[in-house]
Amino acid sequence: MTIKDEKVIQRCHWCEGDERYERYHDEEWGVPVYDDKKLFEMLNLEGAQAGLSWITVLRKRDTYRLAFDGFDPEKIAQYDEAKRAELLNNPGIIRNKLKVNAFIVNAQLYLEMQAKAAKDEGPRFAEFLWAFVEGETVVNQPQTLTDVPTSTPESEAMSKALKKIGFKFVGSTICYAFMQACGMVNDHLVSCDFR
Fold first, then answer.
1. Which domain holds residue 13?
2. Number of structural domains found in the chain
3. Any domain includes 156
4. Is 14 a catalytic residue?
5. Annotated catalytic, 176?
6. pLDDT tens across 72-119, in order?
7. 195: in domain
8. With 0-12 CB in 10 A as exposed, 13-18 as middle and 19+ as buried, what is 80?
């Protein structure tokens, strides 16, 4: 909660107490994202979160953007062993070999998907992902954080479809966090002024 112009602003409690977290909550979390490359970035960052808290990744996001060439899939897809070694020695990111390799594999698969879409042989990345919510934000009405699930049938379906293609670090819980972050799902608490 913050006081702004004499009005108390209510937020979801999970972000309170950290300015960066509050700004992320206020400006990004739950806002629909339709840009293919932004969705690619967010899916990978959510995967990097696996086993950690989102604030850990959020604090490293700027360094991730530098280390991974602004999340340019064409550059990431070409990373060689020297670049992988450089990334694994970068203290500004989570230095997990499987997660670093996942970014590279995911970039290659993303490019394949986009190439097929360009030839009308499949959906663009954003179309593919948004199809799991039928192109519309699912607006939930959680009263408390305990009302917010960690996965849903939609996130399970997204996870299975991404894994079938070959994407890495895309379990159902990761997919649900991604869906929340990118506005496919609105899980702001009913009491939150940013709903």
1. 2-186
2. 1
3. yes
4. no
5. no
6. 999 999 999 999 999 999 999 999 999 999 999 999 999 999 999 999
7. no
8. exposed
